Amino acid sequence: MDSTPTALWVAACAHHLQRRWRTVDPAQLEALAADLAGDAHLRAMPPDDAAAQWLEPVALPAHTERRNET
Question: Helical H runs in 1-70?
Fold first, then answer.
């Protein structure tokens, strides 16, 4: 399990989710991150990695994201 305190892990995970979903209410992302912290597999990861893995099914391929950032 990641040794980061749960509250800090949730905040960091919510921040990573916010970077991907800027239009979603931060309180909803905090609640989602708290739910993710309840998943032992995800909680064992650093929060950024857990959020990224959870987002994989809806994430655009990396080359598409870079092209859209310009």
Answer: 6-20, 26-37, 40-43, 47-55, 62-69
